[in-house]
Amino acid sequence: MLGGARIITIANQKGGVGKTTTAINLATALAAIGERVLIIDLDPQGNASTGLGIDRKDRDLSSYDVLVGNVSVVEAAMKTAVPQLSVVASTMDLLGVEMEIAGAPDRALRLRKALHGPKSISGDYSYVLIDCPPSLNLLTVNAMAAADSVLVPLQCEFFALEGLSQLLETISEVQASINPDLEIQGIVLTMYDGRNNLANQVVEDVRLHMGEKVYQTVIPRNVRVSEAPSYGKPAILYDLKCSGSQAYLQLASEVIRRERQLRAA
Ligand code: ADP
Ligand code: MG
């Protein structure tokens, strides 16, 4: 915990499981219910930045600059169309950052230092969500090192649990080395299609294996959710009433509830 901010890393080394969609819409939902939220886009593809309507030409300061130490998080944060939601955008420069900082002893701690250091975000935000690339690389490790917890989106498909053990292994390594307080915030099932029997089987399976860590809220597959980014808007702004937006609002209240339980424990 940092000046009241809860820092949640959204990670899964598989691509296309709903990390970015969850980052954008959970952040928007949290902002809508009164939280002050920052998204840090750590994926060189920059889908979270684009999905929040940040034009590539406007990304003068980005998460790259934060990691190499040019600027503070607060300086790099840009306002979005969502009140109370800011973003530290990403650019393709991030592709090279791993090489650039590989030799630095604090290479895994760059984001942690930026968030907790002298020019920290203290008091500016109540939630920080970090959107990770589809890899367990140095960027993801930086995100885990900086966070209070990890939120894992799993797509409701046959291989949902495949790769999860590797992800949990990485979390354990980060706990053992640089961030002993890192928790597993929860697992959120995404792109659920109730007409598909297999999807129901997957939900049951994941609940059986991961128990209470799995959120009650399941995010449905919803075409409005997939359309929204092309308008540079979170689904919640694009179509508040659609099933996907409603599910993300529900997820936000579950996250807050779980948060209070974790803090009270
Ligand atoms: P990741 O960040 O893990 O790579 P994304 O969030 O970018 O995954 O999602 C992958 C693709 O699936 C995107 O095209 C996105 O629009 C789509 N998608 C994500 N969640 C949903 C959903 N609930 N319903 C429909 N499409 C979705
Ligand atoms: Mg993504």
From TrEMBL:
Residue span, AAA domain: 6-184
InterPro entries: AAA_dom, DNA_Partitioning_ATPase, P-loop_NTPase
Family matches, as Pfam families: AAA_31
Organism superkingdom: Bacteria
PANTHER family documented for this protein: P-LOOP CONTAINING NUCLEOSIDE TRIPHOSPHATE HYDROLASE, PARA FAMILY PROTEIN CT_582
Protein name: ParA family protein
Species of provenance: Aquibium pacificus
